[in-house]
Amino acid sequence: MKLTILGGGGFRVPLVYGALLGDRGEGRVTEVVLHDLDAGRLSAVTRVLAEQAAQVEDAPRVSATTDLDEALRGADFVFSAIRVGGLEGRAQDERVALAEGVLGQETVGAGGIAYGLRTVPVAVDIARRVARLAPDAWVINFTNPAGLVTEAMSRHLGDRVIGICDSPVGLGRRIARVLGANPNEAWIDYVGLNHLGWVRGLKIAGRDELPRLLADPDLLGSFEEGKLFGVDWLQSLGAIPNEYLHYYYFNREAVRAYQQAEKTRGAFLADQQARFYDEVGAPGVKALDVWDRTRAEREATYMSENRETAGAGERDADDLSGGYEKVALALMRAIARDERTTLILNVRNQGTLSVLDNDAVIEVPCLVDANGAHPVSVAPLPDHATGLVCSVKGVEREVLAAAESASRTTAVKAFALHPLVDSVNVARKLVEGYTSVHPGLAYLK
Length: 445
Prior knowledge:
Layout: E1 2-6, H1 13-21, E2 31-35, H2 39-53, E3 61-65, H3 68-72, E4 77-80, H4 86-99, H5 109-133, E5 138-141, H6 146-157, E6 161-163, H7 167-178, E7 186-193, E8 196-204, E9 207-208, H8 210-214, H9 217-220, H10 224-229, H11 231-237, E10 240-241, H12 246-249, H13 251-260, H14 265-280, H15 287-300, H16 304-310, H17 324-337, E11 341-348, E12 361-369, E13 372-375, H18 383-405, H19 408-417, H20 424-437
Parallel strand pairs: 1-2, 1-4, 2-3, 4-5, 5-6
Antiparallel strand pairs: 7-8, 8-9, 8-10, 11-12, 12-13
Helix pairs in contact: 1-2, 1-17, 4-5, 4-14, 4-20, 5-6, 5-18, 13-16, 14-15, 18-19, 19-20
């Protein structure tokens, strides 16, 4: 079985390959094709993967190419993890937004809109190529903003594109762990959009244990989200929000923290990864050791400004192990082998949330089998969550419309309608700022 990884020179590709190395049995991935526009990055990541596979019998063979059509032909699965504009583009997204006093995070607010406007045209081109060159392939999208990009690709691939994210997985795992339960045996009632969802229940042996957690201040304050949001606020919500909702619930504090930071997250990662690729390219270096050390630093500093604002302290060691690669592997296994499972995924709504139309991509538990991912029926969201979900989905639709029409006016509308952009005039300045620094937005007229 052939897996094509788009963004194959990306830093986190070894996580995916590491998961594949542990997979055995019929229907496993035997061939991995890495595609990237940067041959140097491809070479560096290929070295890391070779060291990972050195002691593994019958490891999936790896090849690399800068030719997209060559990479896609004959693929059974396509894993898309591209970054249009690179990390420098992310840093620019952050700087332009913060200069206007609004959030520049890569998937939330102004930064997420800018990233989406750059990425959607490229993702749509990939979807069209997949439909032509590998019509039977399943596309697993991890490209951010994941929900928005998955929806853009679904207009050409239907339900054969499925978005994944590690945030809901990590959240459910933390809640189960603090309740003393096995995460693999828990049913997580999670619903929303990508990076905008809430855990409303966690059932173990048919019993919802979330009320027990919410009623115990010591237990509730003992894990990441309790520290980040505060016990009182979680009890007020009656749910556990995805960590990215910190940008909404504590927006002023988050913006201030990012403005005062020595470097934005994008700038930090750009510098860190530049060092990694330089170091891995040196002769005699153990590429896997360099990658392990760099990854540990990356994970430990994740959302550090938010945790500092909340006084949440350092991340727990158990939260540093990633997770999206396990979701990707479980998804591929379920489809390829008809190993039925339940995963929280980004899929088309199909009537799951009545406040959104059928084609809107949402993030909910899904039953997965050989025919793909099928969203599970969920209870309606409370009004405050419904309002936020509908508002942000409306913004995503304006981003898609702007990308399709190349309309600068529609792009301004997308920014202006976002709940974290508080002025039409600021929206106009954001579009002006982003189009002046991003060649990838030159299409907006």
